[in-house]
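Quick one, T. Sequence first:
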Amino acid sequence: LPMAFRDVNARRHIGLQQLSSLALSGRTLLGPMKSCKFIVDEDTNQSTLICSAFRLIESLDLTSAAGQLLNETIQAQTKEFRTGMSTLLFLVGAWSNAVLECLQQNVPISAIVSVMSEGLNSCCEKVQCLQISIHDVNQELCSSTARPNAFQSKTCQAGCDSLLNPETSLYARKDVSAPEVVPVNSCSHQYDNCNFNKHLISSLTGFGSIASLVKPAGDKSASVISGSGVITSSCNKNRLTHSRYFNTLGKSHFSSQQGSFQRYFSGQSADPCECYGLGHLAMTLGHGNQTSMKLLQSIVAYQQKTAECSGSSQFNIAEIVTCCLLGLPESYSCVSPGFVTLVSPEQATVIKYFEDKPLRILLMDGDLTEQYRHLGFNRPRNVRTILECPSLQEGRTGDLWLSSSLDILTSFEVNLVLVKGNVCENLMERCIANSILVIGCVTRDVLCAFGEATGAQPVTYLTQLNASCVGSGAQAELWKAHDGRAMDLGELVPVGIKVQGLSLLTAVLTTTVASKMQLIEDQFWTAAYRLHHALNDGKVFLGGGAVELLCLSHIQMLVEQPLQPANKNALKEFCNRWLAASATEYKSVVLQALASGWKRYLSAVMCNTAKAASELEACTSIDHHLKKAADYGSPSAYILKEFRRGDLLRGGSGPFADHEEGLKVYDNVTAKTEAWRRALDLVLLVLQTDAEIIIGLERNQLLNSHGSSEFMFL
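Structure tokens:
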């Protein structure tokens, strides 16, 4: 048996090598400064720009068992959290390599599994000291900046109406002109103008604790005008932040677009920290994604404004939908109240017919087709239908269903039908001819929101329809951009559907680059779900590599201490003498292998963000901090001190460290730890599966060479 185990360690573990190879492709997707990838479809030659591990794995042709397991693990993380997939993918590769190195040193598989599992559990418990409550984050952010003054409150209130009515926005008023952005290198004799821009832009953000984005001449640090893409730096330095292929600089949004990211600001509150806290939290969790953060801040401010209790911290992700408009510049991205979606030009003519008229609305919880049956439907048994002319009979049956469906809709005077699933094309054409607008593929959350606002009750089949199921009060119109123009994009036309009291908000995402559309939508939902999970957890982790650094420091301490199982099941395993001896003997090697995953993670992030010129330099910086943390006496206290100072891992506190003083970066608690656990569970599963395959092959070889009797003896 020992000889067999040595053979297992010496043989190649194909599954772990496949995981390592697949994970290597996602290295550049780590950190706030991701390097996007183009995925090209060989069949259509169409390319898509991606920036997430989920889209990467989804686009690959995974035929191996290890690849399928990796895909399922990534999908599970995406379905539950919508964030942390890149971390999961990288750690899968890093820990696969670490396990392979352990196998080369003849470490028993049982020792690898037990020590790595207990090491991860211990680290997850240790990093709880780096959690900070949402309330404390808001207080810290509010205390780091000045509260809004009277001018800011007035400006913010003027911006309140810009979301619902762009024509009455701040810059549309005759008495207020759009500010001119003054370059910092000309501020030596125009300090007053720079100071005005500083206060104006700070007030336009609507969140009092956000650091001022335009700074006076005396401040040498870089600054970013949010949403405009215009970056001002010191007098002697200029910074390039956009690719020429995706350049959205042009004119400043403040001067040409009347605030392209329309904001709905909350009114005065007794506690500005509570009023503006979610906006701050969105910034700290956004990790540098300016476009998504500004849209998310608009949504947060609007939801807080419409909350029943003033000052409440309300964020409901179920009330958010997205609409992707291809063909418009990214400066047209905005948040629009109501439900914005895309329809065909023929459907748009119906909207023009009853524009500004109250509509009677019907909600369909399923497909609007003749063949659709709800889940769980059981067809009658022992029934056979005999048709003499099947094709003719089917045609008559289809026409009968179309006619009866249209009669039902017209008898109840239905003008608008929202369908959760697919819609029969023939029925769609007949409805358009009768001035009935039918929109398919509507999410359940949208149906529920319209049901609450209009009083409509969803039905599964049209035959269930009665007068009490039809809602009223809906209005449909062609969606207009912030400059007041209706958009006609050719094949699809954006329309907006509103109802008094409807809680839905649509993030209208625009771009002129077709391959970039999916990327923009993914980035927005990632930012939204980060805020959503942070509020559900009620706490966040210190970001910028603080948690991973503490794990490395903690593992150093574990190497010097006896291994203690954290649960009863593990305790029973350690009662086995052979297993306990193996775990003790190889504990140091396995724990260092576990730590190597986090160390490679930190070095990759530092290299991607240009905080280190090479992996060697990044590892040197990490080792330097680990030594200082050990000498400090309390590693967690040292990390917290460096985090607050912005000196952690030489990279400040994250992507904002260079241009937004005092704004820290935080991470989700549950999403991060679950990504760790899923990554290690996958690696250990593949490890044990490979071992079983190798042992099975060896038994077959023994059986063939020595006979069944000797094999049974072994």
